[in-house]
Amino acid sequence: MRARLRLGASHGTVLGMTDTATNIETAQLPQVHLARNPGMALDLDWVSRVQANTSAIERRAASLPGRRSVKKEFQAAWLLKAVTCIDLTTLSGDDTAGRVRRLCAKARQPVRADIMDRLGMEPITTGAVCVYHDMIPTAVSALHGSGIPVAAVSTGFPAGLSPFHLRVAEIEESVQLGAREIDIVISRRHVLTQNWQALYDEMKEFRAACGDAHVKAILATGELGSLRNVARASLICMMAGADFIKTSTGKESVNATLPVSLVMIRAIRDYFDATGYHVGYKPAGGISKAKDAITYLALMKDELGNRWLQPDLFRFGASSLLNDIERQLEHHVTGAYSASYRHPMG
Q1: pLDDT band for position 18 (cuts 50, 70, 90)
Q2: Which phi-psi region, left, alpha or beta, contains residue 18 (left: φ > 0; alpha: ψ -120 to 50)?
Q3: Which of 29, 241, 249, 311 is the most exposed place for a label (fewest CB within 10 A)?
Q4: Contacts of 302 (CB under 8 A, 6+ apart)
């Protein structure tokens, strides 16, 4: 008898994700439309009160992989959930239209049909496809009718050091070309010099330029110097109206880590408690293994709850993660691992 896993009415909801040993489960939640974070006035008193206990954060983060373990069909269900939350990404200097079209085809059918059939699953898609500005028309065309949004990196990605008016214009042009999500990079110097007003003003202008497109604020956490700076920058960007906060461009020497993720996720929780508005989270860079994806999902569930396990509030920024997830799913249904070339990405 083949295994059967179930997704809810929205492919963002996975059922059957229960492990009695660890009590990890997700309820069937409707994909309810959330009010967009409008931002708020800059509250420097709140920002100044934000601290980060580095040793405690690192201890908590180090305990995560061993505390949350799922096996067999429960693991498969968690991995399918992870697939629906991937921003499938290509950000290489040698990107071509052909590569982007192949990536979009993979986003439409991220897991081979025979594997999905063995799992008893209906088709799913990734959360989005993320590309450079020049590749937006190709991606929009390739994804037409799929419902998968195109995300574009912007504002002088990855360094964010181009003239400010050009960064704003780049956002506006990307939206005009059809990008529904814009991943912007903040000016790290504003954080390193504690110029919170400048960071707030910059983020507000980027948000305004996005219009109806959702904006993900990339903090480049590996270049911010301390976890306290990460926490304060996260809060400032949310105050200025960010829809998501994101760890990294993927081009830094240090990208997404569990300590940084814990700090940013708790900033999201504090902001929600204070304002009632949901802000999403996107770890990016260096997440390439299926087991790591499960750890991040478990962290989101522990810290923020089931609602933040939906793709409108959680994304992985990844290019190779899907490859390993598909291999793990094939192992689940066949009992054997396949070569990675059987799961091409582009």
Answers
A1: very low
A2: beta
A3: 29
A4: 68
Q: How far from each other are the two terminal CA atoms of the chain, in whole angstroms?
A: 34
| d(C-alpha 97, C-alpha 275), whole Å | 42
204 an active-site residue? no
> How far is residue 24's CA from residue 302's CA, in Å, rounded to a whole number?
9
Counting every residue, how long is the chain? 346
Q: Which of the residues 87, 282, 292, 301 is marked catalytic?
A: 282
Q: Whole-model pTM?
A: 0.90
Render pLDDT for 185-210 as a digit per residue (tens, 0 to 9).
Answer: 999 999 999 999 999 999 999 999 99
Which of 81, 106, 216, 246 is labelled catalytic? 246
Pairing outcome for strands 128-131 and 86-89: parallel
**Token couple for 162:** 């181009």
Is the CB of residue 250 less than 8 Å from the CB of residue 317?
A: yes
- Tracing tokens 């085809």 back to the chain, one arrives at 105
Paired tokens of 66? 């061993």
Domains of the chain: 43-342 (3.20.20.70)
Catalytic residue among 81, 87, 106, 183: 183
Within 10 angstroms of residue 122's Cβ, the number of other Cβ atoms is 9
183 is catalytic: yes
Instruction: Give per-residue pLDDT as tens, 123-167.
Output: 999 999 999 999 999 999 999 999 999 999 999 999 999 999 999
**Are 184 and 208 in contact, with CB atoms under 8 Å apart?**
no
The percentage of residues in the chain with a pLDDT greater than 70, rounded to a whole number, is: 89
